[in-house]
């Protein structure tokens, strides 16, 4: 007698049933548990997404565009993917420019600044995407995962139409008036709440789209990255030595001089968040590495400097969102202080980026 296999057979996913569950969760604002859908492939996930959209179209919604997910190299690394994902936008998601968004029917809404591209020609395989762009506009995207706590697998977020919930478009600028899409490479981005800056960033942080037009300043292996927070001294963001790229100590400082993960109330009491600062540091390093043609996956060594080892737990937790045991070697040390009293962490790193990747691949 052969013992029974202790592993139960995989249960086939019913795309229509999962689409109905996601649709109901969105309409009732009741989240589903993530990780238990049974989805294992992106092919299955897009089948569910199509079934979900079909339900919406049957209720009268009209498609208005496409949204891309994981346009940040850091987010790609976090999710363990190497390509973009996509979802669909509909007329019911549109929020008028200057209008109001009713979030009472959403589960846990978030908002993100984006760049919208209006295509004036059909994109063809092997063609120049920039040549198809007719106009560009600033945009805001509202996302709202239908999974509890934004916890989901890659196939699950695809099935959930990439968490799309709403969008607002600013005025369109003809592509010809921009002097080429390269002008989008290092624009500052400020997200305001009630007229006050809440977050700042740069279009250079994107892995695709505007990031492909980045124009870093190179000189003798030294790189200064437009759009990144400028160095606070006479040193570069990174320096190449052969196939190794050395990244200068990087903090959560933003291009506007402020710090992510640091805020003060009207009485001057400061709130410092090690988790927010660690994410910002790693995202800033990803932006700098992108200018050298790489990403966080190219890192081979990381040295982190903490003002207090009491912050080790929060820093370590966020670090694990970006790397696992196959990632770079790491050294963490405590220091007396960093260049600004709002800084809790700084990281320097070394990446391996072959100067001639094609030759490296054939060795």
Concise overview:
The chain has 363 residues and is α+β, with helices and mostly antiparallel strands. Helix content is 22%, strand content 28%.
The portion of residues assigned to helices is 10-25%
Element order: H for helix, E for strand = HHEHEEEEHEEEEEEEEEEHEHEEH
Whole-number mean pLDDT: 83
Main β sheet profile: 7 strands, mixed
Strand adjacency order, main sheet: 10-11-12-13-18-16-17
| Number of distinct helices | 7
Structural class: alpha+beta
Range of strand content: 25-35%
Q: Unreliable runs, pLDDT <50, ≥5 residues?
A: 1-9, 207-215, 357-363
Question: What's the N-to-C terminus distance?
Answer: 51 Å
Cα-atom Rg, whole angstroms? 22 Å
Cα shape: globular
Strand runs, count = 18
Provide the descriptors you would attach to this structure in a database record:
about 375 residues; alpha+beta; seven-stranded mixed β-sheet; five-stranded mixed β-sheet; 7 helices; 18 strands; disordered N terminus; disordered C terminus
Description:
The model is unreliable at 1-9, 207-215 and 357-363 (pLDDT under 50). The protein has helices at 15-28, 42-58, 73-79, 154-159, 274-291, 312-322, 357-362; strands at residues 63-69, 85-90, 94-95, 110-119, 133-143, 164-169, 173-174, 188-193, 196-202, 217-219, 222-224, 238-241, 244-250, 262-264, 270-272, 299-306, 329-334, 345-352. The protein has 7 helices and 18 strands. A hairpin with a 2-residue loop joins strand 8 and strand 9 (196-202). Strands 10-11-12-13-18-16-17 form a 7-stranded mixed sheet, with helices on one face. Strands 3, 4, 5, 6 and 7 form a 5-stranded mixed sheet that branches. A two-stranded antiparallel ribbon has the order 1-2. It is α+β, with helices and mostly antiparallel strands and 363 residues long. The protein is globular, with a radius of gyration of 22 Å.
